[in-house]
Amino acid sequence: MLTGVREQLGQALFRRVAGPGGPTTRARIHHTPGPRWFGPDRPIRAVHGDASMFIGGLTALLLQSLHPLAMAAVAGHSGFRGDPWGRLQRTSTFLAVTTYGTAADARQAVDHVRGIHERIRGTTAEGVPYHAADPHLLGWVHAAETDSFLRAHERYGARPLDAAGYDAYVADTARVAEALGAVDPPRNRTELAERLTAYRPELRATPEARAAARFLLLQPPLPLAVRPFYGGLAANAVTLLPPWARGMLWLPRVPVVEDLAVRPAGLALTRTIRWAMTPAREA
Q: How far is CA 78 from CA 22, 65, 239, in A?
């Protein structure tokens, strides 16, 4: 019975993240022969394959929204409200292909995304022009994402890496960022922290950013029965944000509740997700 519950939960989570074509896509990514950008021992594989990504991904979206140009591009072109699961599935597939797929498939995925970025142009409500292919804007999106995934893995990962391992993770992600068009992405954790600090003067919580936060944290398109579990993931995603980012988004810290309830819940949820999505060993 427990095995059945595990399989059903794992399949439901995988369908939600990978979409209806997930099994076919997974088989192609992992079983197609050929050279990869990253070998089996690379840290990027450990981080992107861990259940902590469920929390880190939400943190990344919240943090990325604080750049007005990035948020304007998302609000105007991504359709995240009308099709949030489709966006999640496309993003997770891109991460899987570039992390685990063949070099040829990774390059094809990058070229596809670059083509999309090239077409996304517009102006903010204040009349400031933006272009999704702008290397500076790509650099912000990359730095925010990398930092969020790293912090989530460090806190909730099954096997956290040491300092050298996380430096190597940042270096791994730099390869993908450069392929997408970012210029001189950070290659270790110190450089990553410095890059985030350099972007600080450009960041602020626009009405669109706060609306996106409300959507992600309070209005997820999920059945009522599973919202408490999602709420636990979302609450932990908030705790990973830098204090200055939480302040911009009006997400105050509640130390006692976070330390005694929120973090333990995050650890329990990621352990459950990991258990459900790891294939059971045959007897």
A: 21, 13, 26
Phi/psi of residue 123, nearest 5 degrees:
-135, 150
Look up residue 262 and give its DSSP letter.
Answer: I
125 CB-contact burial (10 Å; exposed 0-12 / middle 13-18 / buried 19+): exposed
Q: What is the pTM of this model?
A: 0.92
Q: pLDDT tens digits, residue range 65-83?
A: 999 999 999 888 766 665 6
217-249-158 Cα angle (round to 5): 55
d(CA 177, CA 55): 21
Residues 89, 261, 215: CA angle, nearest 5 degrees: 35
User: 249 is written with which tokens?
Assistant: 């988004």
pLDDT tens-digit series, residues 85-96: 677 788 999 999
283, pLDDT greater than 50? no
The H or E element that residue 129 is part of is strand 129-131
- Helix, coil or strand: residue 130: strand
Q: β-pairing, 129-131 with 121-123?
A: antiparallel
Work out the widest C-alpha separation in the chain, in whole angstroms: 63
